[in-house]
Task: structure prediction
Amino acid sequence: MNARYIVDLTGAEELRLREMLGGGIHRSRILMRAQVLLLANEGRSPGEILAALPTSSSTIYRCCRRFVEGGLDHALADKSRPGGTRKLDATDVATLVAITCSKAPKGRKRWTLKLLNERFIAMTDHDSISSETLRRRLNELELKPWQKRMWCIKKVTPEFIARMERILALYALPEDTDYPVVCFDETLKQLVEAVTPPLPMKRFQSLREDHHYRRNGSTSLAMFFCPHRKWREVRVLKERTYIAFAHLMRELVDVHFPEAKRVRVVMDNLNTHCEGALYKAFRPEEARRILERLEFNFTPVHASWLNMVEIEIGAMAKQCLDRRIATREELAAEVQAWVARRNAEEATIKWLFDVDAARDKFARHYPVIEENSPLLAA
Result:
């Protein structure tokens, strides 16, 4: 390094560099330059700096030279790199977007880079273009023809809003033992038996499971979840029917909440979830007795995400059900063990989506009512 490039930092400059090294988010090469300047400011020779830092002598030389010639900011900053000329102009990019957003060629599920390349060359004056160039442009435009997301496209109606706010208002209520809020839902589980016993895990080797399996039918799991009590209960059913639902509702009021005046049940719009189910299962007087202690609150259609128990079912699926279970008896035993541990831990859900958040998120779906509207006139 030329000795004429001597680093002499001011007090403010030295303090700035030490603050950079002490915290914050900076590029690693900028932090390296800061260390070079601090060591050079202490009078260290290039050899000593090279021995202390994992860098090169040319980096030390350039850093000190840029400081002497242009100051601290010039020494720390990266040199501008204009790069090459872009191969695609605005018209080419528009053509690429139009192709990518169009339907894939007949016989193909989706566009690939190779197919896009072929169609792009056919529609433009380019003789050739690399697939990597197309990939970079697609990445800049956040276009991903290989990706598809499942989404329920449902119009938000006033009925949707009303049901949503009703559910959210229930969640916001304080705990009331006379009127507890209980979320209810059902899910299916396939019973799968391994044909060949899996090989157990051992050192340097994961558990190995044969892809061949035997399907033993499916079963239904019904879950109650009361967030205030931090309690859940799961029943393994042969099938999902009106009769099964009716008996679950009787169990809810007579066994789990016998002292409650009325249980507020949050559930989705499955056809078996109805008051008529109790009249299918019990005599009229018994059905009426149970219904007088129940209050059904249905989530909006295609909005089961408002049912808090969906989150709890997801936890059960991930922690307990995501494996091969051969029989209904085995499934019931495993699920009850999971429920017992979950209840003992007093696990619950921290629900953050309230009415105010809903009105903010769905603001464009709420009507704008003017105070002097003729609709409000007497």
Summary: The chain has a mean pLDDT of 90. The chain has 15 helices and five strands. Strands lie at 181-194, 213-226, 231-237, 263-267, 294-298. The two ends are 90 Å apart (CA to CA).
